[in-house]
């Protein structure tokens, strides 16, 4: 269940990053201050969703959730807890997720500490940071998903039994 939540949070982060990269720029084009100001909210939501996904992955390592391929490949039950936490970003998928977490953290920091900068400039900067996040999130979701689940031997056997039973029923029926 937790890997599905992590994957859902990454999909939510992608949607928020898409909104962050389009909606404030639309506000700049229309001169709408509310649309431009929404970039700060989107930056906060992006950071929270990516942080949630990262915490789900850390949890998968801590509790040894070996249904997740990334955890099964980079951890074992004999590792101390701190090594398992560090293994979260120890390989390709986790380090990309950590990169997106740090990038969304900086996006949120820009949103917080840019109160004195004109709103149209802040909206443009946050939109560009959102576009970069969109690229990384698409890459993570489609090529390097840390939440992909393993197909266990039991699942393979069940599928094989199902295929055999289906063929037998066709022959008899």
TrEMBL record:
InterPro entries in UniProt: Cyt_c_assembly, Cyt_c_biogenesis, Cyt_c_biogenesis_CcmF
Residue ranges of the TM segments: 6-29, 41-62, 96-114, 121-142
Residue span, Cytochrome c assembly protein domain: 89-145
Organism, as annotated: Escherichia coli
Protein name in UniProt: Cytochrome c assembly protein domain-containing protein
GO biological process: one example: cytochrome complex assembly
Protein topology in the membrane: Multi-pass membrane protein
Compartments in which it is found: Cell inner membrane
């Amino acid at each position: 269940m937790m890997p599905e939540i992590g994957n859902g949070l990454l999909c939510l982060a992608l949607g928020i990053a898409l909104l962050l990269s389009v909606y404030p720029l639309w506000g700049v084009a229309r001169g709408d201050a509310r649309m431009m100001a929404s970039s700060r909210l989107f930056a906060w939501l992006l950071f929270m969703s990516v942080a949630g996904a990262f915490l789900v992955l850390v949890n998968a390592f801590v509790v040894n959730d070996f249904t997740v391929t990334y955890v099964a490949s980079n951890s074992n039950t004999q590792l101390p807890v701190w090594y398992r936490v560090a293994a979260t970003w120890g390989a390709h998928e986790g380090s990309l997720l950590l990169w997106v977490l740090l990038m969304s953290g900086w996006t949120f920091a820009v949103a917080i500490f840019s109160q004195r900068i004109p709103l149209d400039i802040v909206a443009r900067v946050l939109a560009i940071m959102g576009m970069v996040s969109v690229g990384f999130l698409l890459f993570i979701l489609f090529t390097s998903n840390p939440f992909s689940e393993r197909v266990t031997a039991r699942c393979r056997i069940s599928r094989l039994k199902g295929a055999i039973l289906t063929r037998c029923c066709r022959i008899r029926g």
